[in-house]
Amino acid sequence: MLSRLSELIWADWIWFPEGHGWADLTDHDGKVYPKTRDLWATVPIAICFLVIRQIFERTVAIPLASLLGVSDKQRVRASPNPTLESYFCSTSKHPTQSSIESLSKQTGCSVRQVQRWFRRRRNQDRPSKLKKFREASWRFTFYLLAFFAGLAVLVDKPWLYDMKQMWDGFPKMPLLPSQYWYYMIELGFYLSLLFSVASDVKRKDFKEQIVHHVATILLISFSWLVNYIRAGTLIMLVHDASDYLMESAKMFNYAGWRKTCNFIFTVFAAVFIITRLIILPFWITHTTWVYPQTLYPPFLGFYFFNGLMFVLQILHIFWAALILRMVIKFLPGNDIVEDERSDKEETESEDEDDDHERREKSKNGHMQNGHTPHNNNHRKRH
């Protein structure tokens, strides 16, 4: 039963065009082709990335943060309160007004004190600026190195300049050592991001990031299995072209280098739109979706691969909208770009305003007939 199911899943007609199959990927005459078992190498590579990341953040990112002046302001911790803590952990971090009033009666605190407690408690769970900087610097380093490594792998390949050549001889295209390591390292890195997702900074597009990581891992793995290697290397290069710019803009944002951050982010926005919304859909996806149909009749693997491409394209459009919103915000003269995906730390300015108002009332006396008494003891200025 299992053997018949396996034969059905891996049937040639599912993954290859008519007249081709897994037999075409058998090594012969010194030519090597991708193997399913090769993908297992990405697991220890991902673990190595996790270890290297910890070392990098401690020995490189933290000293660099200090050098650039990254610092966290002192946060006021919420006072211990078992009732409020229980509600915070089990019910909601953002209680409604009626819930706040109910909690006020249960704890004997004023409504304002309950609101202040929840604000401080939420801020305690938000990642520090240093943690964000460490994460951004790690990703910046990888994406920068990966982009130039991808250029080195592809610069002398004809399909970089004429993308139709990515199908020349398909699927009997020998695997090059440079392609092997480019694939293994990229896939290992994305696996490490998936492994560390629980401890990384969670942004507003957390779910979209998970979908992106999973779609990317599936896309890279599938392209390896059926020898879409040439298309896969082009897709990875296009993605790495803008990612390091975004991470560097974040680094300068956390350091407070406003002009540098805005400049880099503007360059990033331009590169992102050109690579993700122009080159990827109109050149690469066109060559993986439209052109192959002039060579082979469509098959299930063809639809699966391009389906993943369309998932990524939808995410790119979503992120492009966020990027344009951020660009528009600082164009009129705002000081710094704010990451639309990040939770902003809540301040206690409202509390301070209320305290100031109470002090003023105490100083000036009670309100009379619904109006604050006027202070006439002032001089006219000439």
Automatic annotation (TrEMBL):
Compositionally biased region (Polar residues): 365-375
Topology within the bilayer: Multi-pass membrane protein
UniProt keyword terms in alphabetical order: DNA-binding, Endoplasmic reticulum, Homeobox, Lipid biosynthesis, Lipid metabolism, Membrane, Nucleus, Transferase, Transmembrane, Transmembrane helix
Source species, domain of life: Eukaryota
Catalyzed reaction equations: sphinganine + octadecanoyl-CoA = N-(octadecanoyl)-sphinganine + CoA + H(+)
GO biological process: ceramide biosynthetic process
Localization per record: Endoplasmic reticulum membrane; Nucleus
A GO CC term attached to the entry: nucleus
Domain (TLC): residue spans on this chain: 131-332
Bias type Acidic residues, positions: 345-355
Domain called Homeobox: residue spans: 84-128
Pathway where this protein functions: Lipid metabolism; sphingolipid metabolism; Sphingolipid metabolism
Name of the molecule in the record: Ceramide synthase 2a
